[in-house]
Design brief:
Blueprint: E1 4-7, E2 16-18, E3 32-34, H1 38-46, E4 51-54, H2 73-124, H3 129-148, E5 153-158, H4 166-184, H5 189-201, H6 211-214, H7 222-229, H8 231-240, H9 247-255, H10 276-291, H11 302-312, H12 319-329, E6 337-340, E7 345-352, E8 360-363, E9 375-377, E10 385-389, H13 396-402, E11 409-414
Helix pairs in contact: 2-3, 2-4, 3-5, 4-5, 4-10, 4-12, 5-9, 5-10, 8-9, 9-10, 10-11
Length: 416
């Protein structure tokens, strides 16, 4: 049902309303909300608002009869104090939001730099392999040092620009996810560096697989599947020819498609016969592959990818690693479009390790420019996520505003 214009003397707690004001013209956090108490009603009147838009479908009560009494002068003075307090709280929130956006911009710059360094590594791996290894180790040192410096790590959704550099995005994504799992498992900095080095190079053998197979947008036929499976052998052959290439990474290259029930390849290893580092990378690799298969109809949003792994694949991966992946991603990972309990729609943009069930959500609000869109920390609000929405189901205007990515990439920052 469409919203109904309602004079403010008829509003009461339990009504869901939308204010006819711009977001920066009132002290409330959102333009649309359910009225909690009489104080909010008095504040709306105090702002000089003559009418609001009432949404019957989201309201718990009906509007009051017309011509309700107004607040007295003494109450008005008290409301001035309360309004100033609300304005200050909102200003503090805006400043916090600005600081958050600056951190995200800085994080995206670091991600782009890391991606460029990753591209350089993979370009050199054929002709200058020793230089590629040194460059990769330096990249990993920089990332791991940042990861280890603070316990309060935030996993961010990144704005990957290029759709056609899958091996760079994928390798960096798997490395970041594996590092987060490794950190949760209590790995030392040296163990994390070994893990992330192996993750960066786990798919290096794919540079010898024809692009037509790697990017084929319909299911592969059996000869093509068999050819693709050779990337573990090709990668191991390449790594074995590079002086100083870590043995731990060679093992991961060989084993990153093995599965605990023995159904993986190339050797059909079972359980803990699979290397420990490989088992971390296997689950990170599986998650990213579910999100980014070239077969469009089979691509899963992060929320359904995690659900699929948990419901259907627990027997394939080490339970501890899968549980950690689900825990730090949160139930609704970055990149998930969600519906909130107030019916607003938003995009999960980051998950904080300290508040896993309450991610930060960028809210769709057509009355606010996208660059100033509210970002709500669900941990501190009365709102909760009630549903995940597939981006294809979104109206075009909401899709343009939220810009859900077809290429999901992750990076992290810490509150230094």
């Amino acid at each position: 049902m469409a919203a109904i214009k309602l004079t403010v003397d008829r509003i009461q707690p339990g009504l869901h309303i939308r204010l006819p004001l711009k977001w920066n013209d009132h002290p409330f956090l959102l333009n649309s909300f359910k009225i909690k108490d009489q104080d909010q009603i008095e504040m709306i009147r105090h702002l000089g608002v003559k009418f609001v838009y009432f949404n019957p479908d989201q309201s718990d009560v009906a509007p009051l009869p017309a011509n309700q009494p107004k607040a007295d002068i003494e109450k008005e003075q008290a409301l001035d104090v309360e309004a100033n307090k609300l304005w200050q709280e909102k200003q503090n929130r805006i400043e916090k939001l600005s600081a958050y956006r600056r951190r995200v911009i800085q994080c995206e710059k670091e991600f782009e730099r890391s991606l460029a360094r990753m591209r350089s590594v993979m370009t050199k791996i054929r002709n200058r392999p020793a230089a590629a290894v040194d460059e990769a180790k330096q990249l990993i040192d920089d990332i791991v040092d940042k990861l280890m410096c603070d316990d309060n790590v935030t996993l961010h959704l990144m704005n990957g620009k290029n759709e056609f550099e899958d091996i760079y995005f994928h390798s960096l994504n798997v490395a970041v996810i594996a590092m987060m799992i490794g950190k949760a498992k209590g790995y030392s900095a040296e163990q994390l560096k070994a893990l992330s080095f192996a993750a960066l190079f786990h798919d290096m053998g794919k540079i010898k697989i024809p692009t037509a197979i790697l990017r084929k947008q319909v299911p592969l036929i059996e000869p093509e599947r068999n050819y693709l499976k050779l990337h573990t052998k090709y990668g191991l052959d390449m790594a074995s020819q590079i002086e100083g290439f870590p043995e731990s990474a060679k093992v991961v290259i060989a084993q990153h498609h093995e599965l605990r029930d023995g159904s993986g390849y190339p050797k059909g290893l079972k359980g803990d016969d699979i290397d420990e580092l490989a088992q971390v990378i296997i689950v990170a690799n599986a998650f990213d592959n579910l999100c980014h298969t070239p077969i469009t109809a089979e691509q899963k949003i992060p929320y359904t990818a995690l659900s699929h792994l948990y419901k259907n694949c627990k027997h394939l991966y080490k339970e501890e690693n899968l549980n950690i992946l689900i825990k730090f991603m949160g139930v609704f990972p970055p990149g998930t479009v969600v519906q909130l309990s107030n019916n607003m729609v938003g995009l999960v943009i980051s998950v904080n390790a300290s508040h896993l069930l309450f991610p930060n959500v960028l809210i769709y609000d057509p009355s606010v420019p996208r660059t100033q869109a509210p970002i709500i920390e669900l941990a501190s609000k009365d709102l909760k996520i009630v549903n995940a929405i597939h981006p294809s189901k979104l109206p075009e205007k909401i899709k343009e505003y939220l810009n859900p990515r077809s290429r999901i990439s992750y990076f992290f920052d810490s509150d230094e």
